[in-house]
Amino acid sequence: MDRLAIYRIYRIVWMSVKFFTQVTLFQRRYKGRFTPVVNEKWERLVTKQAKEYKRTALKLGGLMIKMGQFLSTRADIMPPSFIEELEGLTDRVPAVPRMKAIALLEEEWNTSHTDYVTNLSDKPVASASIGEVYKGMLKDGTPVAVKIQRPDIDRILRSDFRAMKIVIWLAKRFTAFGKQIDFNLLYNEMVDTIGAELNFLQELRNGRSFSDRFKAMPGVRFPVYYDEFSTRRVLVMEWIEGARITDLAFIDANGIDRRDLSERLFQLFLEQVLNGGQFHADPHGGNILIKPDGTIVLIDFGMVGSITTDEARSVLKVVEGIIFKQYEQVLDGLEELRFLLPQADRRILADAISRVVAAYESEELTQMDSFVVDRLLDDIKGIVRTQPVQLPAEFAFFGRAVSTLIGVLHVLDPKVDLLAIARPRVLEWATTQKGGEKSFSKEDLLRLALNAVGPLRSLPQKILTFLEEPTRMREYIQVRDTREQVERARLQTRMFAGTVAVLSLASTLFGVWNEHIPLIATSGFFFLIAAFVFKGKSPK
Fold this sequence. Notes:
By secondary structure, the chain is of the alpha+beta class. It has three domains: 3-94 and 153-197, no CATH class; 241-469, no CATH class; 479-535. Helices cover 61% and strands 7% of the residues.
């Protein structure tokens, strides 16, 4: 392993250890007394951590950029202020020297680049953490975009993934996240999702698949890809002139109707999910172009997510369960989608769902009863923290894609009514699921589930909620007291073992860096002892 890899591993692991330690000490210091003042201190801490992460990511590039984008989608495990800071983390990495990019291009083509393209731009027109795009021209005069993978990105990502394995090992053994997250699954999902971007031939196949699926949709275009010039590390595609979809001056200058444009764009992405299940996972303004005639051009299919037919049916099961108040069915659907890990307490989660539905039906949420809303949100936050609930990677990227797209749509038309646009198509889709047979009709869905019981539907829910509140509170206090006793004993052991392990790990890394064999051996010995103590004294 070379020094660059060791340095990257050291920076990533040390930053993670520091974050884990800060969070653990903060939670222990303020346990059970999260007042508004304490909450403000917590927000300052995680915001400071997010800013440090962003600085490190922009300096190191590689997986750190992609991991930051990945973490910004994980609202189930990351604090809101951390996510908010990382949302501004984009692929703003410096371009590699042009000579290195040309060298890689000619290595892939096994000939001089001028044999295939001419007038290659002096600088990349776009630079990201995985690749850079140059503008050029084929011998026949066709303008093309040439995407070249960054040299050594394979080696950089391999070392970064090694660092992530160490970070995950530490998180599983020295933090409370291990109860909430299947780290092995998370790591595999991260490798699959981010690693797929290294194969430009897969991006070519993705782009061509989208083009085939939506070739009949009017007002939409996709680039043409050139197989004969494309390899795993080089992608050559048609150059399409157009402005960013968020360039309002361009849109207004060409007389394009913003509302119509936003509706067409939303329908395009809705069809991606409902028709085939594969969706563009990074629909920011730079990946969606607009031509002067209003044609939408979708580019960059390196990050693509998918929702299978079975997953779509599980989503429908969740929807049906909520509508007809079959909360066990809701949990079955969430478990099929891997939102719940096997050890989740279904009774607590079913109760939480029923309370949210009851509050919605009784119009307490829409009336903004601050006491009810605050209590409900506190309960939900507590459940998410204590229950093994996670957001699978494919749905995390789907959520990020939806969030990004909605931001673009609101730039185009702040008053866009997404529900009005989506409702007819979603209902049509819902009635054709379950093997092509209708599960319920539109009339059943709208009339029976929403309107049939009329305004009296909230009264039974309010009575039941009132009667169940003392029992719920008593159960909650019992569970909380038991959990605090166990947690107190566990934290004492973990803090001792964790402190020794952190210091030993830092010394080991320092010894590796300086090739100090005695220091490596001694530090490694104490690290293993700490891990053994931790494992032996952790509650089963």
